[in-house]
Amino acid sequence: MNTLLIAVLAGLGGMLGWGFADFFAKKTIDKIGDVTTLFWGQLIGIMPILILFLFHPTLPTLGTNGYVYLVFLGIWSGLSYIPTYIAFGKGKISLLSPIFASYAVVVSILSAIFFGELIPGSRIAAFVIVFVGILLVNGDPRMVWSTLTGKERSPDAVKGLPEIFLAIVLYSLWLIALDQFVSGNDWVPFLLVIRIFSSISLFIYAKLRHINLMFSDQTVWKFLVGIGAFDVAAFAFVSWGYSVSPFVSVVTMLSAAFSLPTIILARIFLKERATILQTVGTTVIIFGVVLVAIL
Fold this sequence. Notes:
Largest sheet: none
Number of helices: 14
């Protein structure tokens, strides 16, 4: 199969997987809390990867340092999810999801700084479009600063903004580290180890914070299964694209458009509403992210 086609399919798979996973996460967070939702979603997600691994049970030759690094990526993965889910618990996912999607821009900038990837002027213009979209979502550029400093002065201020910005930084760095590690290798055992240690790190975090991971509302199980299944599917598509295609930016940018299905689902089923300016900003962010992918 053509490597560019693989990159496109991988990116679209990541977009749909993360879009549905985020929607199910919001449904569950409102019922049982952020960390509890995150832990069970990560734990359930181990099962489909384990099944894939059992069909082809091979481990890559990485050496001790390689496996230590892989475990570190798993711990990092789990901890980087925490601010994302905290933000989703505080605010509207239809606004926070496209802001988080701007991690694709951060990845491109960091790749240029640390790995010498050239950024054409047209792509820089797309970065500016994404930034403008974030400002529009917040209604007023001054609102970004007031929200980050804890001085929200408007009812239209986006709750969860500081946490989502932290999540963008953590996830962008993690994604670059994953790409450098998984490129050219079988992604299944890598993803299995990462998911296992992600779940372990979240369990330890919950215990240290005295967060009860048990819950009585049995109606959320279907959503937790949805989170685990779609999140793993997204990572599987993206890891597949990274491992066999050189078009890393295409995979990253298309998968970063996951906010589109999330927004549609949130507007239909969660009845989330936004101001006209925020709706325009959301559209601008998605347009900018997709534009980065094709420039």
